């Protein structure tokens, strides 16, 4: 009994850790299939997307019964548009993406994609429709080709190379001694944060999902790498329904809709310009961040959109 308990408990720990970081969730689910907290309904149907409108309707949520995390969260991401979520640390931003991927069940309200409640669709089809570029991409101890192809089992070499090119990582891969056959991951080449994110972007391009979740890296990349990643993301977000979990405001100015979360409630929503004009929490956060950037950067190449 004890012998059985320990490994299961250990798997549980890994499961929670990975769930938390949104890293590698697809792989994880295939490994720990029986450990899903959320099961398919007996009559679950495959999700059918046409445009992929995402709706959160009066969503309440808590991880533990005593502490509510989201309160009456209500918003729509129109098909093919980008919604960015901003807010202080712990306000509930990443929780929204975990709920959209149905890691957890909402406690009140509903989440729908093209009118289909997540509770009545199969999880496989849901996860097939959503591509995630996580904060911190975990690479498998395998070749870089395998790591990219993971986005689409059975992808051809041409498709993999095309995705790598679109993610601006092809030249880097070609410069490695073993090219696409180079081993990466813990026991292979260590890639930088920006390179890992590009691998994740290539993976996502190959998967070609209708919905994209981008969980922005909390640790800032250098500003050149950051700009390159932003440009690529803009490209892959085009014509896809996109949810950006933004940890820095400088990356959200182009979003069609910005939601400002505060202690689990949407307190403001609008575009960058309308939120600045409203002179509320977003405007305060923006001013504070700009002041920090000005302080931090001695060089004249100060970032910041507009
Ligand atoms: P950050 O910008 O720091 O990433 P966030 O806005 O994305 O923060 P969330 O990760 O959504 O915040 O967390 C919202 C709240 O839920 C936090 O108070 C956090 O402590 C809590 N929380 C997150 N995951 C769990 C969990 N698995 N169990 C219990 N509480 C959790």
List the helices and strands and how they pair.
Elements (H helix, E strand, L loop, with lengths): L1 H20 L3 H7 L22 E8 L8 E8 L4 E6 L5 H8 L7 E6 L2 E2 L5 H7 E4 L10 H6 L7 H10 L3 H6 L17 H15 L3 E5 L7 H15 L3 E5 L11 E6 L2 E6 L1 H7 L2 H16 L10
Parallel strand pairs: 3-8, 3-9, 6-7, 7-8
Antiparallel strand pairs: 1-2, 1-4, 4-5, 9-10
Adenosine-5'-triphosphate binds next to helix 3.
Biggest sheet descriptor: 6 strands, mixed
Order of helices and strands: HHEEEHEEHEHHHHEHEEEHH
Q: Gap between N and C termini, in Å?
A: 61 Å
The average pLDDT is 83
Chemical compounds bound to the protein: adenosine-5'-triphosphate
What percent of the residues sit in helical stretches (DSSP H or I)?
25-40%
How many strand elements?
A: 10
Structural class: alpha/beta
The value of Rg in angstroms is 20 Å
Major sheet: arrangement of strands: 6-7-8-3-9-10
Coarse shape: globular
Share of β-strand residues: 15-25%
Number of helices: 11
- List low-pLDDT spans: 1-10, 30-35, 301-306
Please describe what this structure looks like.
The strands form two sheets. This protein has a six-stranded mixed β-sheet with strand order 6-7-8-3-9-10. It has a four-stranded antiparallel β-sheet with strand order 2-1-4-5, with helices on one face. It is 38% helix and 18% strand. The termini are far apart. A hairpin with an 8-residue loop joins strand 1 and strand 2 (70-77). 34% of the residues are buried. It has helices spanning 2-21, 25-31, 93-100, 123-129, 144-149, 157-166, 170-175, 193-207, 223-237, 272-278, 281-296; strands spanning 54-61, 70-77, 82-87, 108-113, 116-117, 130-133, 211-215, 241-245, 257-262, 265-270. Residues 1-10, 30-35 and 301-306 have low confidence and may be disordered. It is globular. The chain is built from eleven helices and ten strands. Helix 6 packs across helix 8, helix 8 (193-207) packs parallel to helix 9 and helix 10 (272-278) packs across helix 11. It is of the alpha/beta class and 306 residues long. The chain binds adenosine-5'-triphosphate. The site of adenosine-5'-triphosphate (ATP) has 13 residues, from helix 3.
């Amino acid at each position: 009994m004890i012998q059985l308990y320990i490994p299961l408990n250990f798997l549980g720990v890994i499961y929670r850790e990975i769930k938390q970081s949104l890293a590698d969730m697809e792989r994880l689910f295939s490994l720990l299939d029986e450990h899903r907290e959320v099961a398919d309904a007996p009559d679950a149907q495959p999700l059918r997307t046409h445009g992929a409108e995402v709706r959160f309707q009066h969503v309440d949520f808590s991880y533990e019964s005593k502490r509510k995390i989201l309160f009456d969260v209500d918003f729509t991401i129109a098909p093919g548009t980008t919604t960015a979520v901003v807010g202080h640390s712990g306000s509930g931003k990443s929780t929204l993406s975990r709920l959209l991927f149905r890691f957890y069940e909402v406690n009140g309200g509903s989440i729908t994609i093209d009118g289909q409640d997540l509770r009545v669709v199969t999880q496989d089809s849901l996860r097939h429709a959503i591509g995630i570029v996580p904060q911190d991409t975990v690479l498998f101890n395998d070749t870089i080709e395998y790591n990219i192809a993971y986005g689409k089992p059975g992808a051809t070499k041409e498709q993999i190379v095309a995705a790598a090119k679109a993610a601006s990582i092809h030249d880097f891969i070609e410069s490695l001694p073993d090219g696409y056959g180079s081993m990466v991951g813990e026991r292979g080449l260590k890639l930088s944060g920006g390179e890992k994110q590009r691998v994740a972007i290539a993976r996502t391009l190959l998967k070609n999902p209708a919905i994209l979740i981008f969980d922005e890296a909390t640790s800032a990349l250098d500003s050149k790498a950051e700009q390159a990643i932003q440009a690529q993301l803009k490209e892959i977000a085009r014509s896809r329904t996109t949810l950006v979990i933004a940890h820095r405001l400088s990356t959200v100015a182009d979003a069609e809709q910005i939601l400002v979360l505060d202690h689990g409630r949407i307190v403001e929503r609008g575009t960058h310009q309308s939120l600045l004009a409203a002179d509320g929490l977003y405007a305060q956060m923006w001013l504070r961040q700009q002041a920090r950037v000005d302080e931090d950067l001695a060089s004249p190449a100060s970032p910041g959109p507009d």
